[in-house]
Write a structure and sequence with these properties.
147 residues
Length: 147
């Protein structure tokens, strides 16, 4: 699956939707520390997805996915606390939970995909290497190594 930009990724779209929902829920909160913390955490999810994607490196993207997943857990933790403190209405926790669970699953899925892709790329041989291995197998001689 190819994406032209980070906005094409469903996990980024879901993270943006979660950020909008969190902002709407807590925009009038007088607990400024709590509001700022949960809003920073949720914005970090979408921003790390965007930044990782635009690094144009699978290894860098994996790193930023790792950070985004941690921020997802932080939002989950803050939502649980927000519910306990009475900041969330009865339907809000379910909406938030559904989104961060979906986002986490997509992040895990993308990480697994990148892990497989990186492993396969590490095994890709050049045409010359394949020819050398083939010739060595035919002649039953050891494969020459290149420095």
């Amino acid at each position: 699956m190819k994406f032209q930009n980070f906005q094409d990724m469903e996990m980024w779209k879901s993270a943006k939707n979660l950020a909008v929902i969190i902002h709407k829920i807590f925009s009038n909160s007088r607990d400024y520390l709590f509001r700022d913390q949960i809003e920073r955490a949720v914005i970090t999810i979408m921003n790390n997805l965007a930044e990782g994607f635009d690094r144009r490196s699978d290894k860098q993207f994996k790193y930023f996915l790792f950070i985004a997943r941690g921020s997802c857990a932080e939002v989950r933790s803050m939502a649980i606390l927000g519910f306990e403190l009475g900041y969330l209405k009865n339907k809000d926790p379910k909406i938030i939970e559904d989104l961060y669970v979906d986002i986490s699953k997509m992040i895990i899925g993308m990480t697994k995909y990148l892990n497989r892709k990186l492993t396969i790329n590490d095994l890709v041989l050049t045409t010359n290497d394949r020819d050398q291995i083939f010739i060595s197998l035919i002649h039953h001689s050891p494969v020459a190594t290149h420095d």
